[in-house]
Fold these 4 entries.
Entry 1:
Amino acid sequence: MTTIERNLQQVHERLKQACTLAGRDVNAVALLAVSKTFDADAVCLALDAGQHAFGENYVQEGTEKIETLRRLRPGVALQWHCIGPLQSNKTRPVAERFDWVQSVDRLKIAQRLSEQRPADLPDLQICLQVNVDGGANKSGVEPEALAELALAVSRLPRLKLRGLMCIPEPVPDFETQRDLFMRAKGLFDQLNAQGLVLDTLSMGMSDDLEAAVAAGSTMVRVGRGVFGSRPAKVTSGA
Ligand SMILES: *Cc1c(COP(=O)(O)O)cnc(C)c1O
């Protein structure tokens, strides 16, 4: 058994326990394997172990990996999620190659993705990144501006608004972490009550997926827990 295969088993075991504790169905929480900084071979190993959805932060690294995987595994349906901050001049390769973008936090980005999404591809699946813990220079739409953005994005052609994504600052204790995730869950429920139809609440990473599942996460994004530790600092913003 490869290390990645064993890691995936462990993550699924953690998800199962977290769902049991929360009284939730384990099938209600999807696993996104965050492959940033790891090469195409690592993705292949995860794929061989049954993982089909992958997250990338950097546009160039992600698009290159998508092309490489198409060569290495022709005909295999992979699902690629862009989860890193997007600049408006870098939206085109994302619109042309990814299946999901989880890091939309302003209308201009969504408009460009909508215009640039090729008509022969399925709708680009969108999550709005929301800033739940108020860090001033963090990405993510402020909760006060979320409803208006969500409504506007939901009306754009070739995009399908699926839900919310958040990345709260790490905090040491479970309760505080869960409370932060509960804010995202509250916003998610509010939008659904206002008539949007959202099914995806993307929250929880290697160190806090239990708290996220307790708060209602439907998708956890796990990097190190699947692929092992990353190099200390990643500077490439491309
Ligand atoms: C890197 C990253 C992850 C995964 O983080 P790990 O701590 O390695 O699990 C999840 N979401 C986003 C947005 C990331 O940038």
Entry 2:
Amino acid sequence: MAIQSFPITPSTSGKSPRWTQPVSFYGQSVFSKYYAHSICVFLLLVPFLISPAAAQGQGAIGGQNCVTNYNAADNVDYFPSKISDPGSDQERVVDNAALFKVRYANNYKVVTNTAGKKDYVLYQCGTTAPAASEFANGTIFISVPVTAAAALTTTSVAFIEMLGKRSALKVVDTEGLVSSPCVQLGLEKGEIVGLEDANKTLRAEQFKGADVIFGDGFSVENGTESKTVGTSEVSDPGPLNRAEWLEFYSTFFNLEESAQKLTGSINNNYNCFKAAANAKATKPIVAWSSYVAPSSYNNNTASWTLSGADYKKILTVDAGAAFYNGTDKNTFTTSAEFLASIKDVDVIIDETFAGSDLTAFLTSYGLTTADTANYKFLANKAVFREDGLVNPNDGRDWFSGAVAMGDAVLQDVIRAVHPDALPKDVKYNWLRNIVNGEPKQVLTSSNCTATDASTPVPDRAIVCSTMKLDGSSGSAANKAVAGSALTAFVGLLAAALLF
Ligand SMILES: *[C@@H]1O[C@H](CO)[C@@H](O)[C@H](O)[C@H]1NC(C)=O
Ligand SMILES: *[C@@H]1O[C@H](CO)[C@@H](O)[C@H](O)[C@H]1NC(C)=O
Ligand SMILES: *[C@@H]1O[C@H](CO)[C@@H](O)[C@H](O)[C@H]1NC(C)=O
Ligand SMILES: *[C@@H]1O[C@H](CO)[C@@H](O)[C@H](O)[C@H]1NC(C)=O
Ligand SMILES: *[C@@H]1O[C@H](CO)[C@@H](O)[C@H](O)[C@H]1NC(C)=O
Ligand SMILES: *[C@@H]1O[C@H](CO)[C@@H](O)[C@H](O)[C@H]1NC(C)=O
């Protein structure tokens, strides 16, 4: 796709949605590459009006500025804000994420993707990188903070925007599937470019201009070995693990402090939702299921699958429900056998890629409207799909914003299984009810309200601790960086708009 690549329709882009999942043992991690990310915002005005970069950078040692007159003998710690781990001051493992860790030295930090078994040495701009001989072969050295980034997965886009670093995002792959309104706008204006596919010269130039290329962790393109960083958020086995990759991304921007405030807030909000949902006496049975039509990818054999993915299981249990992934098997080749297995499931989250309404759902599962009384999920009017937030090409935010916003995803799952644990007027983000005909919410560049590229994209969750079950959703998420007068003012403004 050439430089100004929007709007892109599936027929002309060459990067249209893939209707079959690429073969991969990491499943969704690769699948998510095709899905773009993120969101601007309508309701959530409060969070982060203050740029994390401004809050943390200027004036701090190192921080957002390059060091001048570096002298190692001065023994200065250039990273006063570290990802914290009370247990150790060496390998600083993070609270939830299982697949990365960070270690700090005076003028550099070593960020390790433990899934990809790869170290990234991030040294403060203006200081001298440590000797490569001190590290494993293949270790990558990057001067930080980075100011130009390429995102090969649209999942990365969400993390970068939540840190308020859209200004650093220069190149995006599969840009036709980006859900973020402001990144869509940036693409339209040419401030962000879609990664070129056909012209290899241009593609190499685009990569050359980037300080870092955030990839999926498993493939590195020729010529980009020195700057491609593998990210594994979609493989980290839990919603809070996934969100905590905000801290991984933050190390490249020296934004550890704001990232930790953000993940702390997501954790707290998540745990509050979890407590509210688990106070309910019933445990509805939930299955995350999908149908795959016969094709050359599956020996022309139709199949129905019940997902056993860890993060879905954790979300289900934390939403006060029971996770169902089959009794003796989770993949079926006849709809009769599959339907017998899910007969008593109370809530279905339909992950079938194609087909977006109840009619398509019934057809793909081998059901008709006459079956309503025989299947609990139909009688309960409880069939949901993950495409509640999409771009005009059906680029799903489920694969981007939802990876980072663990608390908001749990809120959506609770809305599906225990709606009375949330305010009556709470809106869906990703999980829309297709029995009730809830529509896809289509995000375009016109939904970009935060035109300042350093305004962090706020989390979509409501604030659990102040929610009122009588119908008002409480104020927007409390992710404010600092209790400044500005934040207070905007909080009042948001309250005035919401109540
Ligand atoms: C790293 O690579 C060099 C040559 O490419 C080799 O001599 C050296 O043994 C390697 N070191 C390790 C630790 O694998
Ligand atoms: C490929 O890109 C290069 C660099 O932008 C440009 O000079 C060249 O004309 C392009 N080639 C084609 C065939 O468009
Ligand atoms: C990558 O580079 C190596 C040698 O540098 C070459 O053998 C290989 O074919 C290249 N791969 C691609 C996909 O261009
Ligand atoms: C594909 O399907 C045919 C007939 O349905 C069967 O004989 C064959 O074993 C299948 N192949 C694989 C790899 O499953
Ligand atoms: C269901 O998931 C669990 C892991 O959560 C797994 O151990 C079990 O084998 C799965 N059951 C089926 C039938 O796939
Ligand atoms: C996007 O903007 C349109 C108006 O341009 C509005 O109607 C719609 O509600 C917005 N969608 C979301 C999800 O904010």
Entry 3:
Amino acid sequence: MKSSLFLLLFFFSLSNSFAQNAEVSVGGDVGNPFKITKGNFASLKQITIKAKSKDGKEHEYSGVNLYDIITKAESIPGNILRGKSLTKYILVSATDGYQIVIALPEIDPDFTDNTIILANKMDGKDLPDDAGPFRIIVPLDKKQARSIMRVISIDVLTAEKP
Ligand SMILES: Nc1nc2c(c(=O)[nH]1)N[C@H]1C(S)=C(S)[C@@H](COP(=O)(O)O)O[C@H]1N2
Ligand SMILES: [Mo]
């Protein structure tokens, strides 16, 4: 009895520590690969946007502009999207193997006023465990399929003709 209680507590603290240590690797063809953790996420500029979930309800999502993340990773030489850089794209991957692609002009302020964020909060609260700790929000997509949950990596890659 005592040992099973101990085991229960052990697994509880283990799963809890996984949640605390959840991180997102930012990498690919970039000059400055880095890891986003719950700790250093807060030091990046936070913004709040409105977006609808699949059920049509509007929510407020807070987090960091994806453009700031790929800029910090030094993804675009001189931060001017042109020439060869226009073949770069962002591949986002999740714990369940789900993946989505975002093209760089979809987030570059020289090309668009749209904002895509890596969110950690919905309506002022941490995302629930089945969606967080980090989720991409693509507010202007009519379908929510690219609002990928449980993000583990963000890679900036270069598309090549086969
Ligand atoms: N990791 C992961 N994220 C995912 C999915 C998934 O299967 N795995 N499904 C997507 C799809 S198809 C939809 S419609 C939305 C649903 O999320 P919502 O109910 O919060 O709008 O999540 C998206 N994010
Ligand atoms: Mo969906």
Entry 4:
Amino acid sequence: MDYERKGYPELIVDLNKLRSNITQVVRRCDEIGIEIAGVIKGCNGLIPCAEQFYRAGCRWIASSRLDQLAPLKDAGIQAELMMIRIPMITEAEDVVRICDYSLNSEISVIRELNKFAGKHDKIHNIILMADCGDLREGYWDKDEMADVAVMIEHEMHNLHLAGVGVNVGCYGSVQPTKEKLQELVDIAEVIEDRIGRELEIISGGATSSFMRVIDGDMPARINMLRVGEGVLLSYDLKVLYGYDLPYMHTDTFRLRAEVVEVKDKPSHPVGEIGFDAFGHKIEYVDRGIRRRAVLGIGKVDYGDPSELIPEMDGIEVLGASSDHTLLDIQDIVDKGGDLRVGDIVEFKVNYAMMVYLTNSPNVAKVYI
Ligand SMILES: *Cc1c(COP(=O)(O)O)cnc(C)c1O
């Protein structure tokens, strides 16, 4: 039996808007001597998206997952590849085979990287991560960090200590203030004193650090940012932090799903109430008989239905199970409209949804 998925649900990916977003950030950073690592994990490393990062001038393509980086060179993407989730010790050999750079914070892993870089006759570039308070990865003890830097510099002949980096705004919600990023520069300078040379790279964080570029108060020596969300969706800086960025597109990704049932039904379930498909106890509100539509897409494809934002007015997302999404469309009916079986409903895409949708084989990717 031949079966090839086509049609709906579909994720529309506007590659020109994506490339335009990346170009805007690359250009603004370039003006103050900052190079960009384009982070492709948010879109599951979709190759047509990765290509836009490369074409727009990112020096590095970066991901938290090796499987997203592994196919890029064969796809003609000549950027340097960077692993940005500190590597598992069990994947050290693949890290040096696939990537030119990795972010690190454990000496045992760094030793393995050195060993395998030797085996494959490579020099692998290390960026040591400092934890400046966000409490995810990185050295908390900066003396230990400097000691490791010295060991890499003098003892690990198949590694090159390229620089240092920090991550903020991930676990601890710590903001990349000017002072916070200066802390990283200070750490870099302590290490430089110890090894007796300049570090090439001081990697000052992710999308949120682009705020310092916009505000013009980035510490002078920060020269790399690792940017994903800010160009894929451009949501956080605009909506969470209130920056007006008229040059950034926010509709690079759009979701379209198909209506598979439309009926008038009670709004409160009828029968003894137990648990829903995911084992949760739900409170249902009785609003009488309402027009409902069912979509052929579900939690497996996008995650959390409460994050679905319909483009069309008058649609309320009621909930979902693995493969069905339920809409209340009574407000559309009250205004003289309706939905029919086979109609397409469009939604905005946020970061969590983008991660799920790009990873779902049930969702067609349509590049425009
Ligand atoms: C995910 C990640 C990034 C990119 O973050 P965005 O907010 O998507 O720009 C940068 N650095 C590291 C270490 C990451 O894990």
